[in-house]
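Working notes for the structural subgroup meeting. M.R. asked for a predicted model of this chain before we commit to crystallization trials. I am recording the input and output together here so anyone reviewing the notebook later can reproduce the run.

Input as submitted:
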Amino acid sequence: LMILIGVLITCSYYSFDLAAWPSGPNTKMIVAVIGLLWFGYDALLRRNVQLPQVMVVGLLFAGLYSIINIFAIEFNATDDYSYANYVTTFLVWIFSVYPAIALIRLTHGVVTLPLITYYLVATTLFQCLTGLIMDNNPSFDEFNAKIVAWDMDFYDRINRIRCFSTSLDSGGVRFALVLILIMVVLDTEESVRCNKGVALSLLFSFFVISSVGSMVARTTSTGALVGLLLVILHNVFNPRRQTSGGGYLVWAFLIFLTLMAGVGIYLYNTDEYYYNLIRFAFEAFFNLAEQGEFTTGSTEVLETMWKWPSDTKSWIIGTGIYGTWAYGTDIGYCRLILYSGLTGFVVFALSFVYYAYYFARKYPRYIWLFVGYLAMTFIVWVKVSTDIMMIYAFFFWFTAEESDRINGIIPEESTVS
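Returned structure, recorded in token form:
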């Protein structure tokens, strides 16, 4: 059952197109249908769950955004429906995580934020490790290609690591969100810190995901930095906060950092394959040391991609074009505004401000987690136009009792049960 939970989370959080059915629904859509049916059974027959209140407001935002995008398409006489059905995308994200949540509840008796963290960390480690294996083992890469549909010509051309079902900035964003979750859970949950085996495993996973994930996409390192900054800010702004059981984590962090740095230096100097990967992953630091500038090749390219609307009409309602390379930019801010103008962008951005605000109010112990996710929402759009709805979806399905556990009203009985 635990393996099945991992598979379900992979199909949702790290969703992919099936090689056997590349033109059909992806795994996220398939598990969303299962989730909708499972939710209907639990709500109508078992009566142990109900439609979350946050979903109503979320649907209003998603519906309004979809309407604005449809208007932009019609007004500009285009046929680019990339974000015109965002209300469907919203529902797919929310219901695609429900099977995993429901199965965690059946397997462990209750859904807790540490449990979700463990499963997300496990699936993320799986992605990282399979990325390295596939990049070095052609037979495993061929096996993966029989499961996951990839544009092989594209990846052969760019020569970048592909994980089992994610890659590039899409994977980097997901890795970054998990890294933030690891650091905030370690900083917040006394029950996790007191279980040294679990806490050290999470901390070690943080370094593995940060290192390997940065080889996949440097966006990963943003999550590592934000996670560390959140822990520092949490303790700076709460100097009298009572914590226990976690003093050893500071020393463990320094030891793991030294260990990973030592392994990295060794591989950098002895293996050409890892030399190139490490140069890519930490290019900004190499450029700082060698050229005195904290920059990367991709950031220099991004500086040339700031393309804005050329007239007032386009600033207000956009041009109705998103999915093509018509404007030659990957930057999220540019693509979203060019698509449906500031009208659409403001509605879209406010929806994520609302989610961060709503969950921060609902789970005050984890306010810094949602501050981090709100920051990531706007940081990510500097690089790509993807959103982070996939991580918020997990928070939609906690029951009242499970929410009390998150807030510390009901103490954790066990970190792993």
